């Protein structure tokens, strides 16, 4: 990250701008920065973060709510409804709770909010003419539904021996390593599916629904067209090839679908009692929602740097992104 970073006129376009270049994973920096790498991964895996929350949630849900894998050999309403509830309840609690705090109670007003506008009402762009109702409908009716169907198929395949699976005592090292591997795989899959969705024809058919949300909120995270959800959740196919535990399947779903609740919150920090308590939003992805043809991936992996679509939050990057968008759509 350049020490002399200057956002230029870009900062004035936002109600809140972090005032620094968008951070990238220092693991890929040259020359190597060991301290920065340790600090980066400690923030993701050794502190309270959306990553560690999803790990804890996966373990808790597996033992508290879901049956043993052997009970999933046939498609039966009992275990299938429990998987659906395992996905629905965290979405309602996380997205619903965060929305109440930020937008209904306005508990931190607009402190650290990227876009100063309120979420849209009486706007014909959105289903039901209401941004929140639109987002809730598509997140639950299509998002949670397709996410759950994908997991039903994986659990059923595991239970019948058609997908490789293992128990924790059999390979505790691989059990732990599978978590960061899924983060890398999901980042890779998301980048290329996301770029595909920005091909003008497919964008118009499907991805435009998600991009109604320029000013995003917690329910915007997986508010997508059914075609996009189908493509998005094909990344569960990895579990048909790479040995995993059912907890990994749960983690994979929460990482893809609950994490976006926070990254789409519209706020950079969670403020409680006038103090910034936790990192919440994702300016990297907020730039994508504002300028569209940039930052298709995630900050965990430098796909956008490597493939020429990175926006670091500077005025120069905005000019480059606009030129790329003009070239794509003319």
Structural description of this entry:
This protein is mainly alpha-helical and 330 residues long. It has twelve helices and two strands; from the N terminus they run αααααααααββααα. The chain has helices at residues 34-45, 50-64, 77-104, 131-159, 172-197, 200-205, 226-232, 246-257, 259-263, 283-291, 303-306, 315-328, and strands at 269-272, 275-279. Strands 1-2 form a two-stranded antiparallel sheet. A hairpin with a 2-residue loop joins strand 1 (269-272) and strand 2. Helix 2 crosses helix 8 and helix 5 runs parallel beside helix 8 (246-257). It starts with 33 loop residues before the first helix and ends with a helix. The model has no long low-confidence stretch (mean pLDDT 94).
Provide the residue-averaged pLDDT: 94
SS class: mainly alpha
- The number of strands is 2
Percent helix among the residues? 40-55%
Major beta sheet, strand line-up: 1-2
Report the span from N to C terminus: 33 Å
Secondary structure layout:
Blueprint: H1 34-45, H2 50-64, H3 77-104, H4 131-159, H5 172-197, H6 200-205, H7 226-232, H8 246-257, H9 259-263, E1 269-272, E2 275-279, H10 283-291, H11 303-306, H12 315-328
Antiparallel strand pairs: 1-2
Concise structural overview:
With 330 residues, this protein is mainly α. Helices cover 51% and strands 3% of the residues. The protein has twelve helices and two strands.
Name some characteristics of this structure:
330 residues; mainly alpha; two-stranded antiparallel sheet; 12 helices
């Amino acid at each position: 990250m350049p020490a002399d970073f200057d956002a230029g006129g870009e900062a004035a376009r936002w109600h809140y701008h972090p005032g620094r270049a968008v951070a990238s994973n220092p693991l890929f920096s040259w020359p190597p920065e060991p301290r920065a790498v340790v600090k980066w991964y400690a923030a993701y895996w050794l502190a309270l973060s959306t990553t560690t929350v999803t790990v804890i949630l996966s373990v808790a849900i597996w033992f508290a709510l879901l049956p043993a894998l052997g009970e999933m050999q046939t498609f039966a309403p009992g275990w299938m409804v429990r998987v659906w509830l395992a996905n629905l309840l965290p979405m309602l609690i996380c997205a619903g709770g965060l929305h109440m705090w930020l937008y209904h109670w306005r508990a931190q007003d607009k402190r650290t909010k990227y876009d100063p506008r309120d979420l849209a009402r009486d706007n014909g762009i959105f289903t039901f003419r209401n941004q929140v109702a639109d987002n809730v409908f598509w997140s639950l009716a299509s998002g949670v539904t397709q996410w759950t169907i994908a997991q039903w198929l994986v659990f059923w395949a595991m239970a019948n021996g058609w997908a490789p699976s293992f128990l924790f005592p059999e390979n505790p090292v691989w059990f732990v390593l599978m978590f960061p591997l899924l983060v890398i795989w999901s980042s890779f899959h998301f980048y290329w599916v996301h770029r595909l969705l920005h091909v003008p024809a497919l964008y118009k058919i499907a991805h435009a629904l998600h991009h109604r949300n320029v000013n995003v909120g917690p329910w915007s995270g997986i508010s997508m067209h059914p075609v996009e959800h189908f493509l998005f959740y094909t990344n569960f196919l990895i579990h048909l090839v790479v040995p995993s535990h059912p907890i990994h399947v749960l983690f994979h779903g929460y990482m893809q679908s609950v994490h976006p609740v926070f990254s789409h919150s519209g706020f950079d920090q969670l403020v409680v009692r006038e103090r910034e308590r936790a990192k919440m939003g994702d300016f990297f992805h907020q730039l994508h929602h504002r300028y569209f043809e940039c930052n298709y991936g995630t900050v965990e992996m430098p796909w956008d740097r490597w493939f020429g679509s990175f926006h670091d939050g500077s005025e120069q990057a905005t000019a480059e992104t606009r030129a790329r968008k003009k070239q794509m759509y003319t």
